[in-house]
Amino acid sequence: MSILIENVSKNFGNVTRLSKINLEIPTGNLVALLGPSGSGKSTLLRTIAGFEKPDYGRIWFTNKNSTVLSIQQRQIGFVFQEYALFPKMTISENIAFGLKIQQKSMEEIRKQVTELLKLTQLENFSKFYPYQLSGGQKQRVAFARALAIEPKILLLDEPFGALDIKVRKNLRIWLRHLHEKLPVTSIFVTHDIHEAMEISDEVVIFRDGCIEQFGSPQEIYEHPSSSFVKNFIGI
């Protein structure tokens, strides 16, 4: 599913978080939102998800105006930095949660959970509880749960931010491989320049609620649009 963002603005009181954002993301791309704290990255992600409503502008999912759709109608999977797993449910039960809400049959749920456990390399942990897993394993459970509802769009809000450097590196390589297997458009927020440049198809650099530059990692490294971008990416 493609995403078209048209003149989206969002204020919180007197603070402007997004100012006339225009952005087009093709179907199937993995896009990083990169920038300093408070620059608008997470606000845009939450607005795409429907957690926030834009004060102005529209967001289109292919040919649908998403700003009139409920969160449930948007076909979006969301992964948070904090995992947000249910502590008293097993890993399989966590993954199955959204499927039960959709009232899928027990056979459908069992089959889909089995496939997702395999996809996320968690086959041997189906009966474990979250407290028994490492941080990296918990984050893979969070991915599996988000993917269980078969979203068209996957939104990731600093998904590796709470993990140590080695685990982060392994998981971002895993995410790139996972994304190549799935028919999903993904957007992830990060502060990590190397993370954004290593695994994304395109990078959006934010500054004070505006897009400073949008392009492939190579384009941004070779042709930074401003001194801010140069300094931010360390050229």
Automatic annotation (TrEMBL):
<dbReference type="GO" id="GO:0043190">
    <property type="term" value="C:ATP-binding cassette (ABC) transporter complex"/>
</dbReference>
<dbReference type="InterPro" id="IPR003593">
    <property type="entry name" value="AAA+_ATPase"/>
</dbReference>
<dbReference type="InterPro" id="IPR050093">
    <property type="entry name" value="ABC_SmlMolc_Importer"/>
</dbReference>
<keyword id="KW-0934">Plastid</keyword>
<dbReference type="InterPro" id="IPR027417">
    <property type="entry name" value="P-loop_NTPase"/>
</dbReference>
<keyword id="KW-0764">Sulfate transport</keyword>
<dbReference type="InterPro" id="IPR005666">
    <property type="entry name" value="Sulph_transpt1"/>
</dbReference>
<dbReference type="Pfam" id="PF00005">
    <property type="entry name" value="ABC_tran"/>
</dbReference>
<keyword id="KW-0547">Nucleotide-binding</keyword>
<keyword id="KW-0067">ATP-binding</keyword>
<feature type="domain" description="ABC transporter">
    <location>
        <begin position="3"/>
        <end position="233"/>
    </location>
</feature>
<dbReference type="InterPro" id="IPR003439">
    <property type="entry name" value="ABC_transporter-like_ATP-bd"/>
</dbReference>
<keyword id="KW-0813">Transport</keyword>
<dbReference type="GO" id="GO:0016887">
    <property type="term" value="F:ATP hydrolysis activity"/>
</dbReference>
<keyword id="KW-0150">Chloroplast</keyword>
<keyword id="KW-1278">Translocase</keyword>
<protein>
    <submittedName>
        <fullName>Sulfate ABC transporter ATP-binding subunit</fullName>
    </submittedName>
</protein>
<dbReference type="InterPro" id="IPR017871">
    <property type="entry name" value="ABC_transporter-like_CS"/>
</dbReference>
<dbReference type="GO" id="GO:0005524">
    <property type="term" value="F:ATP binding"/>
</dbReference>
<dbReference type="GO" id="GO:0015419">
    <property type="term" value="F:ABC-type sulfate transporter activity"/>
</dbReference>
